[in-house]
């Protein structure tokens, strides 16, 4: 059988699987073509990477490189969030339970496997934080040197974590993130170095596993909508590619529709999708608390607009106030997510209000990253925190216990 190769997503130009550059020469996103995927079947195995091995382009599943990523819970959102979103039986795929507390670990294991199978010893990445933190951890596991290029607004929690894992961190001051990303990615062929970004084709293969897990957890039922907070586009591409391959293999009868959630302050994709456009509207010089979603002009993003039109995807942008409100509601329902992730609830609520999504639709939201990764933003909420001298303890406890509600709002 022909082995895996790369294919540009709009014009179908083929490249070797081992290509170092993450994009086609014309700038399009690349995806891995896995020949024979129509005949792929599940194998027995304790790990999803073993069960779905026939869907993957690698030589092996490399359990020795795993930090225990994936196998994340799919849980009911609960009455508070069902009511806020206006959807019955809303489901949350809790990706904050990955080893570095974001879904990025699913892509990092794929990058780690690629490096191991190619005998590469150094990798570089451009990140607003989570990808760098994740690659740093997987590099530590694999014995791979990791360089991370960051914008200077990346949260301290993420920067310190990746540096503790042993990565070399380069903070780039005053840069537009997209500009910085294009410059760093441009060094790849000159330096003969694999530089990985959030939309790389190998990383996207790892994200497919989230779709495969949903397929198993929902016993084959296909969600009507999957809401994904989106920046570089790799995650939403990966989940959808996973479902397309399940469809090709005859394991599901149809595809879910994806919902692209962004911050209104930086909504190059959501804006275009809402208008039914094939052209990205680049954003520059914006500020948003959703710092994980700061690709203002995502390279290769036109593919997403194309898919959105072809497959009826939805999209929306959440205001800064809505992001904070959604973060608070998630937390009150027991889920502490980072601001970028919180865009999802506000976007779902407005698509529900507009009638694009119905109350009875089966909706899954991917909770992409943990709130612990950005405590500065958490401090902006109204919080019920009291300071008390030891001598006043009894009086304080008594008065608080009598209070009707423990809610700060
Ligand atoms: C990276 C990231 C996203 C965006 O994913 P892309 O693949 O870049 O579109 C969303 N949420 C969190 C928490 C992230 O770290």
What is the structural class? alpha/beta
The share of residues in extended strands comes to 5-15%
CATH architecture of the domain at 74-101 and 202-378: 3-Layer(aba) Sandwich
Lateral arrangement of strands in the main beta sheet: 4-5-13-10-11-12
Q: What integer value in Å does the Rg equal? A: 21 Å
Q: Tell me, rounded to a whole number, the average pLDDT.
A: 95
Q: Write the CATH fold name of the domain at 74-101 and 202-378.
A: Rossmann fold
What is the highest CATH level, the class of the domain at 74-101 and 202-378? Alpha Beta
The number of strands is 13
Order of helices and strands: EEEHEHEHEHEHEHHEHEHEHHEHHEHH
- In which range does the helix fraction lie? 25-40%
N- and C-termini, Cα separation:
62 Å
Provide a count of the helices: 15
Shape by Cα distribution: globular
Bound molecules: pyridoxal-5'-phosphate
Give the SSE layout.
Elements: E1 5-8, E2 14-16, E3 30-33, H1 48-51, E4 74-76, H2 79-85, E5 91-94, H3 104-118, E6 122-126, H4 130-142, E7 145-151, H5 156-164, E8 168-172, H6 177-185, H7 188-191, E9 194-196, H8 201-217, E10 225-229, H9 234-248, E11 257-263, H10 268-275, H11 302-311, E12 314-318, H12 320-332, H13 339-353, E13 363-367, H14 375-378, H15 393-402
Parallel strand pairs: 5-13, 6-7, 6-9, 7-8, 10-11, 10-13, 11-12
Antiparallel strand pairs: 1-2, 1-3, 4-5
Pyridoxal-5'-phosphate binds near residues 231, 234 and 368.
Explain what the structure shows:
Strand 6, helix 4 and strand 7 form a beta-alpha-beta unit. This protein has a domain of 205 residues: Rossmann fold (3-Layer(aba) Sandwich), CATH 3.40.50.1100. The model has no long low-confidence stretch (mean pLDDT 95). The protein is an alpha/beta fold and 409 residues long. It has 15 helices and 13 strands. Helix content is 37%, strand content 15%. Helix 3 crosses helix 8 and helix 4 packs parallel to helix 5. The strands form three sheets. A six-stranded mixed beta sheet has the order 4-5-13-10-11-12, with helices on both faces. Bound molecules: pyridoxal-5'-phosphate. The site of pyridoxal-5'-phosphate (PLP) has 18 residues, from helix 9 and helix 13.
